[in-house]
Amino acid sequence: MRPARYVAGRAGSVVLLLMLLSLVVFVGTDVLPGDPVTARLGPGASPQQIEQARERLGLDRPVLDRYQEWAAGLARGDLGTSATGQPVAGMVAGRLANSAVLTATAVVVVIPLSLLVGVLLGARRGSAADRAGSAALLLTVSVPEFVIAAVLVTTLAIGLGLFPAVSLVPAGDSPLAHPEVLVLPVASLVIVSLAYAARIIRAATVTALKAPHVEFLRLNGVAAATVFRQAVLPAILPTAAQVWAVTATSMVGGAVLVELVYGYPGIGALLVTSVRGGDLPVAQAVAMVLGTVTLLGMVAADIAGTVTTRKRLT
Exposure of 126 by Cβ count < 10 A (0-12 exposed, 13-18 middle, 19+ buried)? Predict the structure, then answer.
């Protein structure tokens, strides 16, 4: 199958998956434990106030009727109106930009570092450095992001006072205007993601170095740098491209917890606030955005791996 046809086929499947995702997100957030009206009005609200609020928010209608209206709005780019009366799109846009800055910065750091660490360990397979490095990567990848975030706050922020423990960003400012607030959240995402990506790249490096054509070049006296550039690196990059895409996607979920630990004004904090406050339109919009980004990231990883592998083989 030609690459263009393959990509078109994957794009078609994405549309179907997004439709299913929207249904799962809407129904899933609708059946969350607790009553969103009581969460907003408080336990002291009268039955009449609760009934009026349910009618105003449309919660007295069947869930499928509300889903059809919500999905039609999504198709038009309308995320609806928050329980507070504000447009959901405006509430999500700013937070989404902050989360994008956090995740993109972490990805930019992870890509070269994971390639460097993975290649160095793979090239020294079986050595003491490889065994120690691989053990450290395995240990790190098994630790959740929020635990690493807590350790960094305790040591670098509270203990040594090098960075702020809370990532406060003034309203209207970009996090890039206050780079000090990005250091610890980015480090928390990078540490776990780096360990995962480097382990995969190390394994790809070991496999590439065992290939017959690589051994042939070595036996013919080709310089190590040339062998790496012409034979090893092209074999590693398809796998690396896939793992970087998967890593970037997984960072979206990890960033939710990291943002909570640091008080970073991203989309994860908005999701938790909206769920706690019973603001279903905001919770549904944020969950849909996170799910869409994850889905597109996974499909991009599949396409990147397939296309780069086919190009290398042709």
Answer: exposed
